[in-house]
């Protein structure tokens, strides 16, 4: 007998342990059932909120959203490494398993529990506590997000709100609607002053002949077939005085202004190329410019 | 200093001015003036729109054509807007005034005084129904294309 008792002892112990385990499992199952029951209204609420949110987005501008979405895929690709994606894949498997676990018939048929049951599950069950922690964390982030959203200045336009929601954007993908892009080209360029002179004159020697005298002038004029009169000298003296003052040989237009003669007079006095001839006779450099 | 800068006595240029834009008329006038200053005989034959440059009621109101003018820097879309032409013309006139460039009317006067000869195209005159009385006094005559060739014999011809 003693022997049989001794033989039986481990079996009984094992049975005891088994009974305890079954009890534990039953308890856990109840906790699951409780969770499902509690979650149902929450899920419904979440659903409603999500629909509302989508609706709000739609009103906020579907096309804007679509435009942003075009850049979204790229951002996902650039923002996540292959490792991240692999992990995401693993997580998805885990998620699906969770879903399958909680939708098994035996789980769904779990006994209903009330407030006390819930309290007990929360107090005793590690899994429930863990699940609760996850839920609380999710709620915290959601609340934080909502806070941020509320803090956004109302003046922000749809596009900006969308951008805030979708994170930092890349200007390259969707350039911001900058200030009016039609910029009027400065009209001043259309009338560039550089266009006015239609000819370019090589830079003339800038110094007057230091040895010039009236007699030398007479000779230079004679070489041009000219006999200088008082009228000629009025112009020549004016040209020399002007050069002394400005260091620039006067052109014909300038001569008409400083010598009190007309263009016609100049052409009469110095028939061939008056500007150049006057400068030559007066011992001045060749005048620049087209006029 | 005995060498002269006087060019060969027979040298002459015939300039055909066929456009009436401010930016299209000035080159003709300045070339002619520069020729005279260099002792070269010069005459200008004004035809088609170029007639505007010697028409009394038009000469002070020549415009700059900015449409289809890539150098203007103005987009064609904008250049075509009403008033753009007048705006561009006034801007250009302002820059010319800053350079003390004579107006077109003054240039015609200077050319006349310097001995350049101005002619109007007879056919264009008929086309635009203008008479010699409509033209500025500096215009020497209304001539035909045949007359132009007679005049331009031995001349270098410049078409603008």
Helix content of chain B: 25-40%
Largest sheet of chain B: 5 strands, parallel
- Strand order in the sheet with the most strands of chain B: 4-3-2-1-5
Q: What proportion strand of chain B?
A: 15-25%
Q: Determine the number of helices of chain A (DSSP H or I, runs of at least 4 residues).
A: 11
The CATH homologous superfamily of the domain at 12-62 and 103-159 in chain B corresponds to DsrEFH-like
For this structure, the quaternary state is heterodimer
Strand content of chain A: under 5%
**CATH class wording of the domain at 12-62 and 103-159 in chain B:** Alpha Beta
**Secondary-structure element order of chain B, as H and E?**
EHEHHHEHEHE
Greatest interface and its residue counts? A-B, 37 and 42 residues
In the predicted model, the low-confidence regions of chain A spanning at least 5 consecutive residues are 169-204
CATH overall fold name of the domain at 12-62 and 103-159 in chain B: Hypothetical Protein Ychn, Chain: A
Average pLDDT of chain B, rounded to a whole number, is 89
Distance between the termini of chain B: 37 Å
- The topology string of helices and strands of chain A comes to HHHHHHHHHHH
Question: Uncertain runs of chain B with pLDDT below 50, 5 residues or more?
Answer: none
The second-level CATH architecture of the domain at 12-62 and 103-159 in chain B is 3-Layer(aba) Sandwich
Cα Rg of chain A: 51 Å
Helix content of chain A: 55-70%
Provide an overview of this structure:
The complex is a heterodimer of chains A (291) and B (160). With 291 residues, chain A is an all-alpha fold. Among the domains of chain A are: 111-150; 154-170 and 195-281, no CATH class. Chain A is 68% helix and 0% strand. In chain A, helix 1 packs antiparallel against helix 6 (158-166) and helix 4 (115-124) packs across helix 5. Chain A is rod-shaped and about 160 Å long. Chain A starts with a helix and ends in a 10-residue tail after the last helix. Mean pLDDT of chain A is 76; it is low at 169-204. Chain B is α/β, with parallel strands linked by helices and 160 residues long. Chain B has a domain at 12-62 and 103-159: Hypothetical Protein Ychn, Chain: A. In chain B, 36% of the residues lie in helices and 16% in strands. Chain B contains six helices and five strands; from the N terminus they run βαβαααβαβαβ. In chain B, strand 3, helix 5 (122-127) and strand 4 form a beta-alpha-beta unit. The longest helix of chain B has 16 residues, at 22-37. Chains A and B meet through helix 10 and helix 11 of A and helix 1, helix 3 and helix 4 of B.
């Amino acid at each position: 007998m003693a022997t049989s008792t001794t033989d039986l002892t481990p079996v009984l112990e094992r049975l005891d342990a088994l009974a305890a385990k079954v009890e534990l499992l039953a308890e856990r199952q109840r906790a699951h059932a409780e969770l499902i029951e509690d979650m149902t209204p929450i899920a419904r609420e979440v659903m409603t909120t999500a629909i509302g949110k989508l609706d709000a987005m739609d009103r906020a501008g579907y096309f804007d959203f679509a435009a942003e979405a075009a850049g979204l895929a790229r951002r996902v690709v650039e923002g996540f490494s292959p490792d991240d994606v692999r992990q995401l894949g693993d997580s998805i498997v885990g998620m699906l398993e969770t879903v399958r676990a909680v939708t098994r018939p035996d789980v769904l048929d779990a006994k209903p529990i009330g407030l006390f049951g819930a309290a007990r599950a929360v107090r005793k069950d590690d899994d429930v506590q863990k699940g609760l922690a996850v839920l609380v964390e999710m709620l915290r982030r959601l609340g934080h997000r909502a806070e941020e959203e509320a803090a956004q200045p109302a003046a922000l336009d749809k596009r900006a709100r969308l951008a805030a929601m979708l994170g930092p954007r890349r200007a390259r993908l969707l350039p911001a609607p900058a200030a009016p892009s039609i910029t009027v080209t400065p009209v001043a360029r259309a009338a560039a002053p550089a266009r006015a002179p239609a000819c370019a004159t090589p830079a003339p020697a800038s110094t007057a002949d230091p040895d010039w005298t009236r007699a030398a002038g007479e000779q230079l004029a004679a070489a041009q077939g000219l006999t200088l009169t008082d009228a000629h000298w009025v112009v020549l003296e004016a040209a020399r005085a002007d050069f002394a003052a400005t260091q620039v040989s006067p052109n014909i237009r300038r001569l008409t202004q400083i010598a009190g003669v007309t263009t016609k007079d100049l052409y009469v006095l110095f028939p061939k190329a008056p500007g150049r001839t006057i400068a030559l006779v007066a011992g001045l450099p060749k005048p620049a410019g087209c006029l | 200093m005995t060498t002269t800068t006087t060019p060969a006595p027979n040298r002459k240029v015939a300039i055909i001015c066929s456009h009436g834009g401010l930016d299209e008329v000035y080159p003709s006038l300045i070339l002619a003036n520069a020729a005279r200053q260099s002792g070269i005989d010069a005459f200008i034959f004004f035809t088609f729109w170029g007639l505007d440059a010697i028409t009394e009621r038009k000469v002070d109101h020549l415009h700059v054509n900015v449409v289809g003018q890539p150098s203007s820097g103005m987009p064609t879309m904008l250049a075509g807007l009403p008033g753009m032409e007048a705006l561009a013309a006034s801007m250009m006139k302002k820059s010319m005034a800053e350079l003390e460039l004579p107006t077109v009317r003054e240039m015609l006067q200077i050319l006349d005084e310097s001995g350049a000869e101005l002619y109007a195209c007879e056919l264009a005159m008929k086309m635009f129904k203008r008479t010699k009385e409509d033209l500025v006094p500096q215009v020497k005559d209304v001539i035909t294309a045949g007359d132009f060739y007679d005049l331009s014999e031995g001349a270098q011809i410049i078409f603008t």
